[in-house]
Amino acid sequence: MGTNTRGRQFCVTSFGESHGPAIGAVVDGMPAGIPIDTAYIQAQLDRRRPGQSALTTQRKESDEVEILSGVFRGLSTGAPIALLIRNRDARSQDYDQLEHVFRPSHADYTYHTKYGIRDHRGGGRASARITAGWVAAGALAELFLRRELDYEACAWVNSIHTLSWDGHPDTVTRKQVEASLVRCPDPELSARMEQAIAAARDAGDSLGGTIRCQLRGIPAGLGEPVFGKLQAELAAAMLSIHAVKGFEYGMGFAGSQRRGSEVNDAMEAGADGIRMQQNHSGGIQGGISNGAPIDFRLAFKPTASIARAQETVNTSGENILLETHGRHDPCVLPRAVPIVEAMATLVVADMVLVGRG
Amino acid sequence: MGTNTRGRQFCVTSFGESHGPAIGAVVDGMPAGIPIDTAYIQAQLDRRRPGQSALTTQRKESDEVEILSGVFRGLSTGAPIALLIRNRDARSQDYDQLEHVFRPSHADYTYHTKYGIRDHRGGGRASARITAGWVAAGALAELFLRRELDYEACAWVNSIHTLSWDGHPDTVTRKQVEASLVRCPDPELSARMEQAIAAARDAGDSLGGTIRCQLRGIPAGLGEPVFGKLQAELAAAMLSIHAVKGFEYGMGFAGSQRRGSEVNDAMEAGADGIRMQQNHSGGIQGGISNGAPIDFRLAFKPTASIARAQETVNTSGENILLETHGRHDPCVLPRAVPIVEAMATLVVADMVLVGRG
Amino acid sequence: MGTNTRGRQFCVTSFGESHGPAIGAVVDGMPAGIPIDTAYIQAQLDRRRPGQSALTTQRKESDEVEILSGVFRGLSTGAPIALLIRNRDARSQDYDQLEHVFRPSHADYTYHTKYGIRDHRGGGRASARITAGWVAAGALAELFLRRELDYEACAWVNSIHTLSWDGHPDTVTRKQVEASLVRCPDPELSARMEQAIAAARDAGDSLGGTIRCQLRGIPAGLGEPVFGKLQAELAAAMLSIHAVKGFEYGMGFAGSQRRGSEVNDAMEAGADGIRMQQNHSGGIQGGISNGAPIDFRLAFKPTASIARAQETVNTSGENILLETHGRHDPCVLPRAVPIVEAMATLVVADMVLVGRG
Amino acid sequence: MGTNTRGRQFCVTSFGESHGPAIGAVVDGMPAGIPIDTAYIQAQLDRRRPGQSALTTQRKESDEVEILSGVFRGLSTGAPIALLIRNRDARSQDYDQLEHVFRPSHADYTYHTKYGIRDHRGGGRASARITAGWVAAGALAELFLRRELDYEACAWVNSIHTLSWDGHPDTVTRKQVEASLVRCPDPELSARMEQAIAAARDAGDSLGGTIRCQLRGIPAGLGEPVFGKLQAELAAAMLSIHAVKGFEYGMGFAGSQRRGSEVNDAMEAGADGIRMQQNHSGGIQGGISNGAPIDFRLAFKPTASIARAQETVNTSGENILLETHGRHDPCVLPRAVPIVEAMATLVVADMVLVGRG
Predict the structure, then answer these.
(1) Which is the CATH superfamily of the domain at D5-356?
(2) Which of A179, B60, B82, D289 could in theory staple to D222 by disulfide, Cβ–Cβ 3.0 to 4.6 A?
(3) In chain D, where do the E strands start and end?
């Protein structure tokens, strides 16, 4: 399997570069007979689209998706679904000065070293722009899962820089999240986050933060020990997302400072069946879902692109001082929310299908 | 590919249960002509073996590995190497009382729900005992990598409960780590950690902690965007390990509270080539190694097995109070150190081979 | 890995239907730095294109390929190369009468039964039209292999119906093959084959035949026992091609009637190294190439589409008599020659890359 | 996925060499809750076992299988099932003279060239002895399939050298086949085949032949276009078997000399549903089963090991004359029958599971 494909049964092959003709994905494994709601797919792409607000990159991309195959009379046929998104507003000349420069904490140096050739325009293959294809694929996965489960992926910005939300995750709704420009469930905190991002942008700087995500409606039994554990699949999917530097589920790192007697999830049987009294485990035990919401958090580093002078090296191996003024997001987290949901949904759809076999 | 196999080119298939006849692994993809130092493999297994000290489970297993195939006159032949470790000291009767009980925060309930049948003896397939096979496989991977690179995986216990070490990672040696019963580089802190574990054990409780790991000697260029990124492969491997609840690399979660101007890794060219001035990125950019040490941290939850009464449910769906007194580790971290190194080394070996293709 | 992807390291994902918006392929695993000769890719597509002569379907498709990604300044970048071919001359109305009918020896009934939904237009996903994407991908594989080896895939029509060529395979050239409308190396036989095909067409009937293929310039050592044997990979690739009903290599079925003393390939060492005195083995022993040309033959059934009344069944389960008059090839073999070469070349490219790991 | 593993969901990893400590297989993907009839597995191994008659190698191996994992109280648990068969009667000294020799039409030269090292004892990894593990795995697959379908794989020797059977395939029973020492359904022909094999053996020679196989009880809908077509999966599995040089299904090569009007499978609807009037297609259309028996034939070359002087080369690159007198089968076909059935059954089990996803 190529390294640009993920999934065992619900498989997504990603292609494209930031300034090439197009980006996209091929989804192989979509069961037949699923209504393909193209408006819903487009709506998810719109959530990820650049230029949504003053806080994001000003690149203008409509990100309209064309379905090239696998759909007949509005239904999936079981054949691969190829998704195509043309690049429209690539200003490649903006990157001319970067052709021979390795930007700090970008993938310029590593791509150059690995491949010996690098499409430097807009980050090339390393650009987060390619996640548009992932979001479209994730929307297809969601259309499939909706038929199977009362499934919902709900992610939100839990912190930006030092501004952190501490509300209860179980009650957050996607509607609440979408009401916020930064996609934080708390309106007041949301406003402060907006200000912090704007301030960082104006200072030529960038901010990191964390996203929390819940996957709801997954019954006990999803996940494939010992190398297809649900948390391992989620971690790999999440660490594929640009700028993600950490993944934890359940109590995560905080739980490492606790005692077993404090964090074990006591179980109880009731009229509705068996349930965990708490969800310290984050909905997974032994790599398999336990019926509680899957609950995980991601650390995002601050955007590597900043408008300040930085020491770095060029392709001739000379030390230089770099100053750039491209279009970029001073904080990637708001737009990353639908990407996180999409990738998580791809994992769930795949695990559902694998679990049938 | 089965869900008990990991790797694209250096592939490990895991098998076995805690109280079955044997556990083991088949390594497929070991290049031919590598000297197979069985003493080294056994030495790694001894680091993971139970019964090393009063702080670990008292199950007595010599964990002697038999190589069934793939080696001829001390050299690998290119054929699969099957590794067999017999279970010797399984006291299955100790688990009779657990046959119809779901232990809190164990995989009992999820396995039961998923498979409809569960080998309850010693945790069955969900037992961490199966990691012996992974450690043996990881030792093979290391024997391969040594021929290619000046490679070393060095992991250590960075914290137990609230006791945390804050030394510099680059200078930690495996020797230093092995000198400590809990595998923490700091002798004084190590003694305090031992006491904390012993106290938890005596109180019928358990402790969590963190392990930090450095992978050294990896040149720039390892990793396969966009779904075989080095951090994604490492995260999946690490989240496959029992009790691991979180993975972060480079600045990880702490970096999410910082600004780009603070954490970007400035680059500089010198006589030895290009290097990062710091290693906030943890040795990876865009999914590809950058030549700096790969640096990551793992959160382990406290052992789920505790000797205290816990509310739970039995297989008849009745609420019960469970008290158990089996053999288990009050803190898994010291024995997890070689497992972390082995899994990381499997990832590196695989990525090295994939990168050749 | 999805079932529309083939390859371990040089991976091709196929998509598209006969009458959908487009067909194509994503090639993942193309090494970086290979010059992408688009004219050569197009030339291969032109060899497969419909409408080349009166002996093929009259559907008019230019089959122009657009490269969507993975190429920068004429060189491969190591990123996936997406290949897009628009469908231009789909006359879907021609298939209206077939919407509710299962054509004999077509995939109509099996697709209908498997998926519950079927794009009946032009055979939908089951159409051989999708092999255009394979041919384009195979051309990319060839561009890669040319850099590595003095490689050539040379296939030709060895028989049509009962007209069979018995010349020596080692001297056949692609030029010789292309000089023939039916792609048979013998001009005189070629003319008789043309007549046979035209006669079958005029009689509303169709003809089968065999294709022989040689892969030249492959050194000893290619192939991966025991489940990636070269002949197994080739067989799977060939049996993926529409209408192929048999695969044999070396002496194949004829060799089953011989004695070991007759067919064993005696070896001899000379100034140029070791070689086989004959090539009864077809260039492979134990799943690994032995340095002689890889030599295999394929059986193609006669085209299932014929213009005669046939007994069959409709989707309501009624027995009917079917007469069709669509555009189709009365004999698929001439156009299958580049498809065979392309699929074989994909196998070789993949095995070359896997063998490095 | 390693090249010693086959299958997407029902996965078999093969290991072992002819004269190593053991051979075996790990089956990953066996659904949970299947009764594991070890006597049945052993019975299948006994059908493949050497030393069954004077016509086979006289190596004495009981081929007792030990199940190391994945079975609890007689039922599969969903965990990998490791199967171990010890080598008992390896007479490695018999092969001393072959250490530095490349036997004609064996894998000696190709393994040597590919790996640089070769376990020459008994053919090492290239020995057909490893198929014992495949047969055991196939028996597990059959135990699974029996629960799902009224499935049967029935293979037989259809020809030995020029002695060929032309009976109707649909009525052959496994019982009938097992009644014959050479596993040909016709008792009279069977006797002549025995004589032919004995004569070849006495002449220091060997014979080839063909095996035909029917897979019965498979409903329409099995197989995964376009790269997991049923015939492609079967072909790959069959071409993995030692000495197989050709695969054809349905009318195969004979059909290439026919007209469409002669070979199209007319369909008819009746009380029992839809069926093919003939089975020229061999039970598959468009890569998917059509409900008729899957019907294929395999060409086996004569055993490469013969007791006659042969021209060949040694590892020093010198031309030599080789005479060998090891233990081997003068005709492999009788013992290959259960191997063919096992490999076919592995394909079917895998496709059944993949088809669920």
Answers:
(1) Chorismate synthase AroC (3.60.150.10)
(2) D289
(3) 5-6, 11-16, 22-28, 65-67, 71-72, 75-76, 81-86, 101-102, 152-160, 163-164, 209-216, 244-249, 267-270, 273-276, 284-285, 288-289, 294-300, 310-314, 319-322
